[in-house]
Design goal:
The complex is a heterodimer.
Chain A lengths: L1 H27 L6 H19 L2 H24 L7 H23 L15 E4 L2 E4 H23 L1 H11 L1 H6 L4 H23 L9 H16 L4 H21 L4 H15 L13
Antiparallel strand pairs in A: 1-2
Helix pairs in contact in A: 1-5, 1-8, 1-9, 1-10, 2-3, 2-4, 2-8, 2-9, 3-8, 5-6, 9-10, 9-11, 10-11
Chain B lengths: L1 H21 L3 H26 L7 H18 L4 H23 L5 H21 L1 H4 L5 E2 L14 H24 L1 H11 L1 H6 L4 H27 L1 E2 L6 H14 L6 H19 L3 H15 L3 H9 L1
Antiparallel strand pairs in B: 1-2
Helix pairs in contact in B: 1-7, 2-7, 2-10, 2-11, 2-12, 3-4, 3-10, 4-5, 4-10, 7-8, 8-10, 11-12, 11-14, 12-13
Classes of the chains: A mainly alpha, B mainly alpha.
Chain lengths: 285, 308
């Protein structure tokens, strides 16, 4: 049971990042290599906010907002001029961003590991179905589920979501109909960055905050979005669950092999369905 | 066009030679060898990317495994340096063929992701499962240099000739390849795979060939680096190395003969020069990469071409 909970909490974390990655790809056609770096920046900002305000909750608001603002700036300054060019330039620009963000974090926070404590009330564990389960993990699952629900509601049911879908399916047509596609792109990148900020913040109490945390998780997120079909948010939910559970149960039964196992899952999926498991006839997010 | 390319290549060769003759101090020679070795890597990389249009993010695997292959054949097999280099090229080529066979099933950006993850898989297997072979985090120290004709190649001023010769051979090979019918076919595959297929070219086969040849040169470069540093380690398998070679190729001017070499010179010189003044080398290079992708879409070589 506790393994299931751990798996679910990892899945939620992966989903928060993969959703941003896949939204950005669906809308901008860019694979954001720097997504892991944004997540890492989010974790450090959360640490800073926690240290400044003395509580976890302001961090959960401040860090995503800062990330969203950074996302706006990044999209305007580095990605917008590159849309007409081939994909490798966008990859390179986001690759450059990784180096810049890591440098900024190194200068501001140094190389030491940082740690966030869970907010009071979420520390310790509860007995559930006969096993001890960390309260904070339950919070992560609940919070992640709420974000997923909000995201789906926003995209499927609101006017803004409609605009977003239209601009993603056919940008030219959307622009003709009076939608400011550039603005939509900026907002989507900001949203993705904000989600990375949320991810970084809630990861803070679970994992040590360190420079390499971004790259470790971005590889898993790539696996998630590739399995689910890039640009497909439902696929991202499925992929996140698959990889999260593989990690949690792998840790239990064959800890030596989990990293390799996730890659094997991925290769198997790619060889059978190069477009991802959920890509067929699904529209882009 | 062709004449200018030849001229540029000859200039590069002359510069590399004059470094040895005019500034034979150890630091300069070491730096020049590093540049030439990375140039072999970047030239090899650009066969895959610049020539054939396959954006790989997994070339560190060929580079690093080349270093290991050379170390194994020389340290455990007791073979000579030449055999070590051959083994490295073979290792690079075979691994690249395997990568290509898997990754060419997907196209475009997925190819980049796929090669990135295959590269990470190789790195992971080497560092966690095959510690006995890879030496784990410590790597394998004591990779030998050649002992031909009784010359002491452990002296950098002697080893320089080996690196220089292989660098010039690689430059020549890449120049010839670009002009050969095969090179033209690869270019056609890059520019328009559909049309190339309809003209009767086997697109899939040509992609395999390009990545394999590219892998062989990457392996060679890895082996030379192991010889230069007298060390083979898992760091050379990491994704940063893959990223570095992409950056060098693109900044220098991917798809041209001397572009990748210019990129290597730029990045290595920046790294060397910036580290004199600041500790924030990586961040500044990141900034420069972003600026170059924005304002220098065709790299340094493109700048020169546009003016002419």
């Amino acid at each position: 049971m506790s393994t299931l909970i751990i798996g679910l909490s990892i899945s939620m974390l992966l989903f928060l990042l993969a959703a941003g990655l896949t939204l950005i790809f669906g809308m901008l056609g860019v694979i954001n290599f720097a997504h892991g770096a944004l997540y890492m920046l989010g974790a450090y900002l959360a640490f800073q906010a926690h240290a400044t305000f003395g509580s976890f909750w302001p961090a959960l608001i401040v860090s995503p907002l800062c990330l969203a603002a950074a996302g706006l700036a990044i999209e305007r300054l580095t990605l917008r001029p590159l849309y007409p060019r081939t994909h490798e330039f966008q990859l390179l620009a986001t690759f450059g961003l990784i180096l810049v963000i890591e440098e900024v974090v190194r200068v501001v926070w140094g190389l030491d590991y940082r740690h966030l404590t869970p907010p009071p009330g979420l520390t310790g564990s509860v007995a559930l179905f006969g096993s001890d389960i960390a309260r904070y993990r339950l919070f992560v699952i609940g919070f992640g589920a709420a974000v997923i629900a909000a995201l789906f509601f926003g995209i499927e049911r609101t006017k803004l979501g409609l605009v977003l879908r239209a601009a993603s399916v056919n940008p030219t047509m959307a622009a003709t109909l009076g939608i400011d596609v550039n603005l939509v792109r900026s907002l989507v990148f900001a949203l993705g960055a904000g989600l990375a900020g949320i991810g970084g913040t809630i990861a803070g109490p679970l994992l040590p905050i360190q420079l390499s945390m971004g790259f470790t998780i971005i590889l898993d997120c790539f696996i998630v979005v590739v399995i689910g079909g890039l640009g497909n948010i439902k696929g991202a939910v499925f992929g996140a669950l698959l990889i999260g559970m593989t990690r949690a149960f792998g840790q239990l039964y064959a800890p030596e092999w989990i990293d390799i196992a996730t890659y094997v899952v991925l290769l198997a999926v790619l060889l059978v369905r190069p477009q991802g498991l959920f890509a067929a006839k699904e529209r882009l997010a | 066009m062709i004449a200018r390319e030849t001229l540029a290549a000859l200039t590069l060769g002359a510069v590399a030679l004059s470094v040895r003759l005019l500034w034979p101090d150890d630091g300069t020679l070491y730096f020049a060898m590093l540049v030439m070795i990375w140039s072999i890597f970047a030239l090899g990389y650009d066969i895959s990317f610049g020539l054939t249009g396959l954006l790989s993010f997994g070339h560190a695997a060929f580079f690093g495994m080349g270093a290991y292959a050379a170390a194994w054949t020389m340290q455990r097999g007791g073979a000579g340096f030449g055999t070590g280099l051959a083994a490295a090229m073979l290792m690079g080529a075979v691994l690249a063929l395997a990568f290509a066979a898997l990754a060419t099933r997907v196209s475009g950006l997925f190819f980049a992701l796929m090669t990135l993850m295959l590269g990470e898989l190789v790195s992971l297997i080497m560092t966690t499962r095959l510690r006995g072979l890879s030496g784990g985090v410590d790597g394998l120290p004591g990779v030998p240099r050649p002992d031909w004709f009784g010359v002491d190649f452990f002296e950098n001023r002697h080893f320089y000739w080996v690196v220089l010769a292989l660098f010039l051979l690689t430059l020549l090979a890449c120049g010839l390849l670009r002009r050969s019918p095969l090179g033209q076919a690869l270019l056609a595959v890059r520019q328009n795979p559909v049309r190339a297929g309809q003209l009767g070219l086997d697109v899939a086969l040509h992609r395999l060939i390009a990545v394999t040849v590219s892998g062989a040169f990457s392996g060679l470069a890895g082996a030379l680096l192991a010889g230069l540093m007298m060390y083979a380690g898992p760091q050379t398998l990491g994704w940063r190395i893959s990223g570095d070679v992409v950056i060098m190729a693109v900044l220098g001017g991917s798809g041209t003969l001397i572009g990748p070499v210019l990129g290597v010179v730029l990045v290595e010189a920046l790294r060397e020069w910036l580290s004199l003044y600041t500790q924030h080398t990586y961040g500044l290079i990141g900034l420069i990469i972003i600026l170059c992708t924005l304002y220098l879409p065709r790299g340094i070589a493109g700048l020169w071409k546009a003016r002419a």
